[in-house]
Write a structure and sequence with these properties.
The chain has about 475 residues and is mostly beta strands. The protein is built from seven helices and 29 strands. A five-stranded mixed beta sheet has the order 9-17-16-15-14, with no helix packed on it. Strand 19 and strand 20 form a beta hairpin. The protein is elongated.
């Protein structure tokens, strides 16, 4: 024992008592070395053996599974061993977070992602959505908003009826993009069908919309039941791609320059002509001015999320080719492949954008033309910190479009794109697919076929009284 005690003393004096190391023993024959190592091994206490991975309790494995951050991790979990695979099957997952409905251009409304469907009548045409509201029109071009979850309706003017306002619109800190095609809304409104880029129900007495012809448009306002939309008679059209109501003010984004505008509205109840835009201020300057014939291959979305104004930038891949149309050479673009995404937060105090790498573990974004929302989700739900997106690009004249609607998911946690839903066949045109949110009121659509049929031939109901 003296030799062992002496050896430990030497190690302690050198600060090596509890170190892991290799020893080179000199001066002893093989038998002496073997005896010394056996004595050391007998004296050193051995740590208790750790349980094997396969012996972990199902409860602990279930907690580990729920906290895995990505789909790839959860997919690999059951491949570790048979016990892990069995524990995963016994794991009780939390209930799925509320998901929206998907409105297809052909009029079908699909429950996302379960596939329950509801069909709009053929006599009703869908244009866009705003939260839980659908913008629909009848065969006589009269329009109305409908909440399919409550059956509430609001009559709106036709998309071909406009009241040009001569009042001056104050323009602050603006820049004019040189373009031969700059014009007012009254100059172009009758060229082709009007698209509703964005629609906002500001209140039961005020509706705001971005109306456009091939992407070039203006802001239109109305009161429910009015005969025409109110637009500026002299304000030049802009390339607005989205608009949002944030902290009581309207904000709009220009998709060619990424300029952010703040819009002030005057709505005097005594003014029989209705609300009007009084001021447009560019509060954040975007990229440098683009050539007049250049269209960026990206989409921009404005979203309010937990008291913050977010901008989602979606960059799309495209292929260009030359074609001859009516004897003229034209350069056409065809959008293909996957997208890249960036999320930016608006600093309205210092007036600039800041990049966000994460939106938090309890938020998912659903983006779509005219209807983007931030949705609260479970921290164990894999949709947290994800962006659900649609094939909502509608090309202008001279561009091609496929006849399918693609629903994808971009995961900010790993930067990968997934396909949570099938490719849905639909009609091509200038009305893309969009989201419809129930706002937590119900998960089921009301049986409204008969109600919609009544709305095809409207009566003289008080528009405000139709709200529930």
């Amino acid at each position: 024992m003296f030799l062992v005690d002496w050896f430990y003393g030497v190690l302690a004096s050198l600060g090596l008592r509890k170190k892991v190391a290799k020893f080179l023993l000199l001066g002893l024959d093989n038998a002496g070395k073997t005896a010394l190592l056996r004595m050391l091994n007998d004296e050193v206490p051995q740590p208790p053996s750790s349980p094997a991975w396969s012996d972990l309790s199902p409860e602990l494995l279930g907690l580990v599974f729920l906290r895995l951050p990505t789909r790839a991790d959860r997919a690999h979990f059951p491949a570790v061993c048979r016990q892990w695979r069995s524990s995963m099957r016994q794991c009780s997952l939390p209930p799925l977070s509320p998901m929206p409905w998907l409105v297809l251009p052909g009029g079908n409304i699909v429950r996302f992602p379960h596939g329950e469907t509801f069909n709009l009548p053929e006599t009703v045409r869908y244009h866009n959505s705003c939260g839980e509201w659908l913008l629909l029109s009848r065969s006589d071009d009269s329009c109305f908003l409908m909440n399919p979850f409550t059956k509430a309706t609001l009559p709106l003017p036709s998309l071909s009826s406009y009241n040009p306002r001569d009042e001056h619109v104050e323009i602050v800190n603006d820049r004019i993009v040189p373009d031969d095609g700059m014009c007012t809304w009254m100059d172009i409104k009758d060229l082709i069908d009007v698209s509703v880029i964005a629609l906002i129900v500001c209140s039961t007495h005020l509706i705001a919309a971005v109306v456009a012809i091939s992407g070039l448009g203006t802001i239109a306002l109305c009161r429910p039941g009015a005969a025409a939309w109110s637009v500026s008679a002299h304000e030049q059209c802009r390339w607005l791609s989205d608009m949002v109501l944030f902290e009581g003010k309207l904000y709009a984004i220009d998709f060619r320059t990424e300029d952010l505008f703040c819009i002030d509205i005057v709505d005097d109840e005594l003014d029989k002509d209705g609300p009007r835009v009084s001021r447009i201020e560019r509060i954040i300057e975007g990229i440098s001015i683009l050539p007049s014939n250049h269209f960026p291959t990206q989409m921009l979305y404005l979203i309010e999320s937990r008291g913050k104004l977010l901008l989602v930038r979606r960059k799309m891949s495209s292929k260009g080719y030359v074609a001859y149309m009516s004897g003229r050479q034209e350069f056409l673009q065809h959008f293909v492949g996957n997208s890249e995404f960036e999320v930016l937060e608006t600093d309205l105090r210092h007036l600039y954008w800041t990049n966000l790498r994460s939106m938090g573990n309890e938020v998912a974004l659903f983006i779509g033309r005219g209807c983007s929302r931030a949705v609260s989700v479970s921290p164990y739900d894999l949709s947290r910190d994800c962006i659900f997106f649609l094939d909502d690009y509608t090309p202008g004249i001279g561009s091609r479009r496929t006849t399918t609607t693609y629903c994808g998911l971009y995961d900010l946690k790993d930067g990968e794109i997934y396909s949570p839903m099938w490719m849905v066949s639909c009609k091509s045109g200038n009305v893309p697919a969009t989201w419809l949110f129930s706002q937590g009121k119900t998960d089921k659509l009301q049986a409204i076929e008969e109600h919609l049929q009544e709305l095809v031939e409207p009566g003289d109901d008080n528009p405000v009284a139709l709200l529930s």
